[in-house]
Amino acid sequence: MFSGSMVALITPLDDNGEVDYASLASLVEYHIAAGTDAIVAVGTTGESATLTVDEHVKVVLKTVEYVNGRVPVIAGTGANATHEAITFSKLFSGTGVAGCLTVTPYYNKPTQEGLYQHFKAIAEATELPQILYNVPGRTGVDMLPETVARLAKIDNIVGIKDATGDLSRVKKTRELCGDSFIQLSGDDATGLDFVLEGGHGVISVTANVAAADMAQMFKLALSGQADAAHEINQRLMPLHKHLFVESNPIPVKWAAHKLGLIQHGTLRLPLTELSESAQPVVTEALKDANVLL
């Protein structure tokens, strides 16, 4: 259902901080042409934390409109209040959204039982396929494989985006959840190894600026051509690393703007523009990865 190179799409904003839908449409075409396998709209990289509810919904629906059925669109629907995550999931029912990506509740740090009950309630409130999202570095809570296994028994919970960088979890999750449970990496630096260990793909920040390379790399990996995939990954490693030199999506938005993929690199407070000291670091990473400025 979901596999390969899937982009965690940035949300372009104009100089006034409003959503730039012309740039969003251009980004969609860039990814379709590059061979990106799916688009995640308004996840963490899409600045879900600072969009209003109306903006959040509109960006997802406009992405679906611009994609026009050519690749799956997955909506970010996470929240640290269960009722809010349910509301988002229901809003996207019947809209053409292929599934929901729902992050573990941030800040309030629920127990494993709380995580189970949270995701169970969301899944039972919608027919849309649900992808769990575990990113303890940003949320302060780690959903353990045993909890994932309990959730995998619910019909429309179909997979997980794992951003822990812990490659041992691929095998453990497969043993607990079965081969059909979709495992997606949320960590670009280990994403290729994640797939070679048996994962199905990646939801990528790097793909925002190196979409064709990422798409090709994961096609090679999933077809058993590991050596050729490693060659591409080695070239992209500076991006995997330095697109996180400051908090995501600060560096990748700056890079996308410099590459002409979006008209402006605007972010909303409390995020600020990439610092002057970090700009040469990202520039050098783009050059090293052969992503031309």
Automatic annotation (TrEMBL):
The identity of this protein, by name, is: 4-hydroxy-tetrahydrodipicolinate synthase
Keywords carried by this UniProt record: Amino-acid biosynthesis, Cytoplasm, Diaminopimelate biosynthesis, Lyase, Lysine biosynthesis, Schiff base
Catalytic activity, EC: 4.3.3.7
State the function annotated in the UniProt record: Catalyzes the condensation of (S)-aspartate-beta-semialdehyde [(S)-ASA] and pyruvate to 4-hydroxy-tetrahydrodipicolinate (HTPA).
Gene Ontology BP annotations: diaminopimelate biosynthetic process; lysine biosynthetic process via diaminopimelate
Q: In which pathway does it act?
A: Amino-acid biosynthesis; L-lysine biosynthesis via DAP pathway; (S)-tetrahydrodipicolinate from L-aspartate: step 3/4
Listed under subunit, the entry gives: Homotetramer; dimer of dimers.
Active site (catalytic residues): Y133, K161
Q: What HAMAP family does the record point to?
A: DapA
Recorded source organism is Photobacterium ganghwense
Residues bound to pyruvate are: T45, I203
Entries under Pfam families matching the protein: DHDPS (PF00701)
Q: Point out the gene that encodes the protein.
A: dapA
Cellular component aspect of the GO annotation: cytosol
